[in-house]
Amino acid sequence: MAIAIEKVVLRTVIGMAVGISIAFILTLPERSSRSSLIDEIKYLPGNETAIDDSKTGCSVPLKVYMYDLPRKYNMGLLKKDDPDQELPWTDPVVPPWSLDSGVNRQHSVEYWLMVYLLNAQDCKDGGMAAVRVNDPNQADVFFVPFFSALNNYGYKMLGPDAVLAKKLQAGIVDILHKSKWWRASQGRDHVIVAHHPNALWHYRKILNQSIYIVADFGRYDNTVARLDKDIVAPYVHVLPSYNEDDVVDPYSKRDTLLFFRGRTHRKADGKVRAQLGELLMNESDVQYTDSLVSSVGLSTSMEGMRSSLFCLHPAGDTPSSCRLFDAIVNHCVPVIISDRIELPFEDDLDYNEFCLFFSSEEAIKPGHLLGTLRGMKRERWLQMWEKLKAISHHFEYQHPSKKDDAVNMIFKQVQRKVPALKLGIHRSKRLRIEDWLRRRR
Q1: Mind listing the pLDDT tens digit for each residue in 84-97?
Q2: Exostosin GT47 domain: which residues (predicted)?
């Protein structure tokens, strides 16, 4: 009997609550319909996880605060005659990165990230992996828009231009060390592009708590950059993408087995290039050419990649080069000979599905490399070619950005770092002694 009475009372209370709620909604002004009220509740601060992805077309994006640096640190390096060098660049319309800027263009990752964020104030496009926020308190990470690819002059830093470059790098360090947001996290949640191998040469150790976006780890020791903390990003490819690669029989159309065009004598791990030259230069189905970068050379490289089954990517002065990404967007199966290479987006992509890997020792065994390539069945090559066509969009830097292109993939990589960096930030705030876990190593 008592239980029955309790049930009646409970139903009565629930009914009254529902009735009051309905009455409240009906008394709202005309503009506040039921649906708009629900939308307002969804977007209350601190309620971001309640966003309905199916309705907005946008999964919860990474929230990025971009520092408003004087343009002399970024777009002003592209427009040196700009009289407003001390003012931030806020215009979504930006000057183009020069097509003839040589090696620096390959490393222009910071430019594309900044262009993306200048146009990422809201999440209108469901393909956007990051959104810019104006309130630092809402940010997951902080992006430092410094064009380090246009601000490096080698480790010696000599000459008048180098004096200015070093001054700008020192200025970035000073700005960050004075920032309350940098000090709050010791820089752990700050993203800095150092894609050029000489970027931030004299200051990289000072900023080493941050997330570096790099091409590889060839010129970093592991106290500065490492795979668990930092992000490997693709080079900006310099050869045009092969968007018309839809022939019926691509295997037969490509009449060269293996293609390479570039410098054949390099230092460090790149010494393997000279050894490969001795094995490959006189093979009738191989193009192995020593060449400097030029407009004619680029055109020849494009034609060579599009008419070859395989494209050679040996180590150079650094473990990686733009050549790999030129091959990918031209659907020429990469043959990677670089013992210390790390690859972009490898938690999403299995490079074994569209690349071949040889150690330096394996590659210079007489007959081994060419024997493997010549022995690959047509069906297997076609599978790899199809995979290249399917994944090449991940290596495109473009504006406007598209779903899962290079910039969106980079921001997804950053987002995956957030839980670990938050753990580090929170843990460091409460420690009152030297980190005992590090002492135990």
Answers
A1: 999 999 999 999 88
A2: 60-370
